[in-house]
Write a structure and sequence with these properties.
The chain is an alpha+beta fold. It contains 10 helices and 7 strands.
Length: 271
């Protein structure tokens, strides 16, 4: 009886999240067995992950957002959320063939799962690709002083050992999250995710770069201003230093575990 009641509550929670999602149609095709399988297996790979239906539903929606970004991009795309990665890993273990069919049907092609350690130091560039595409999906300017929901997810959910992206005076900054899902170090600016880094990588036009630079300057002049299109869950930190993702690619691996405190965070890539 207790299990039946919990299953009903889980289904209601997931439906409530899915109804508000841009991927409502695709979410209806997700296998129902994924939630219990994720709940059973994810804690082994992602210690401390909350086994709640709402956590799962938001992480699943974010994974579909990443699939959307990867399908639109012409380059490898890095996943900036350990929470979303936990669902990807579970789905790959549960039904890899079904996942391939799902991606082909809803996103036009399969999305290959690539561990950050196999990306030959390219995770920083892949995360920059994802940032631009995720901003477009959230109707933000590609070089705006904003953070798309996909990049804000781990911090919003307090994902244990997740990837803590935030805005710092108009610039994207990163800090690894601790076991409680809180920043374990001061946030640092990420050069490859700044407008000049996106422009140098050929991901934005000169006009988009100039607009992004103007937005960032305004944000520095007025740190309390709400950035256009920014997620309401973001927090601004002060005193961070600059970092470059290219040094070690990413601080997570294919299992989503904490790495060596690298300069930017991404669990896996899609190609």
């Amino acid at each position: 009886m207790r299990h039946a009641v919990l299953a009903i509550l889980d289904a209601r929670t997931i439906r409530a999240v899915n109804r508000r999602s841009r991927y409502a149609d695709a979410l209806r095709d997700v296998p129902p067995a994924l939630l219990p399988f994720w709940r059973e297996t994810a804690p082994d790979e992602f210690p401390g992950i909350p086994p709640y239906a709402r956590f799962y539903a938001r992480s699943l929606e974010a994974l579909l957002s990443f699939f959307d970004c990867a399908s639109r991009a012409r380059r490898p795309c890095g996943l900036p959320s350990s929470a979303a990665d936990s669902v990807w890993h579970a789905w790959l273990r549960l039904d890899p063939d079904g996942l391939e069919r799902f991606c082909r049907h809803h996103f036009g092609r399969t999305i290959a799962h690539v561990a950050s350690g196999d990306m030959a130091g390219q995770m920083g560039g892949a995360l920059a690709v994802c940032l631009v595409e995720a901003r477009k999906l959230d109707r933000q300017a590609p070089a705006a002083s904003t953070l798309p929901r996909l990049f804000a997810l781990d911090r919003a959910l307090r994902m244990p050992l997740g990837f803590g992206y935030t805005l710092q005076q108009g610039a994207v900054a990163f800090a690894r999250l601790d076991k409680a899902g809180l920043p374990q170090e001061p946030a640092r600016h990420v050069d490859q995710l700044a407008p000049h880094g996106l422009f140098a990588a050929g991901l934005i036009s000169e006009a988009e770069y100039e607009l992004g630079s103007i937005m960032a300057a305004r944000r520095r002049e007025d740190p309390g201003a709400q950035p256009d299109g920014a997620c309401g869950t973001l927090a601004t930190q002060a005193g961070g230093r600059s970092a470059d993702c290219a040094d070690d690619g990413a601080s997570g691996d294919s299992g989503g575990a904490s790495g060596d405190g690298g300069s930017c965070g991404g669990g896996c890539g899609g190609d």
